[in-house]
Request: fold
Amino acid sequence: MTTVDPVLRVDGLTLAFGGVKALNGVGFNVQPGSITTVIGPNGAGKTSLFNTISGFYRPVAGTVEFEGRDITRLPAPQRARLGLARSFQNIALFRGMSVLDNIKLGRHCQLKTNILQSLFYMGTARREEMELRADIEARIIDFLEIDHIRHASVASLSYGLQKRVEMARALAMQPKILMLDEPVAGMNREETEDMARFILDVNAEWGVTVLMVEHDMGLVMDLSDHVVVLNFGQVIAQGKPQDVQSNPEVVRAYLGSGDVTELRERLRAGRPAINSLGEVA
Reply:
């Protein structure tokens, strides 16, 4: 049987802020073409993990390998050029700019023109800009069904549409791995269903590997091929969704008890899990 090398390998990742370890020896693989989801209670280290993988934080130990290359010390812009694109837990769009201009900014990490060519907007710079706009309008805007708001100011949009625009900007980066930090947080049911469809389609139709952090357990169990569970900065379980939700350590992390039935009932009802501190996980 042929073994496929992981597109992303995280090994022994440790991150500390002063004397506090946000991550402690975290390790897992992301297979090409998969949807891998990182879950865990509040404060488990999920966003710290994303920030370390994407290059915003530098770990004190461990490695991040992308397509067999050690990228642990590469700055975030270089990782983006290699094909790591991400969205953020808190929307990070330019609110005074249009939807189209926000999306176009995502592709700039891949442009080959220099500052002088861009300044005078001639030759290669003009051709690249025209190709960029055509690709974004023909593929990304149509794919995410946001043609009707392409010229609207981001500040005028609903929260759900802003999250969709942020995903569009990440897709404009031509990612090999699309990293989504809580893509449906704060959305209503209809917006959540739309985003779930887009995630599945970008994975299946575009062949983009997805790595996401998410609290909506129903979404996680429906979409994920592989689930990694963090608690207090450590991996306490990983595997297929159905195996993870039956793991006693996972149940204790979310509920403070060993009641697997209660967790499954919450998942079926689409309610968030509550950890032992009474927090929404």
User: Anything to note?
Assistant: The two ends are 38 Å apart (CA to CA). Residues 124-143 form the longest helix (20 residues).
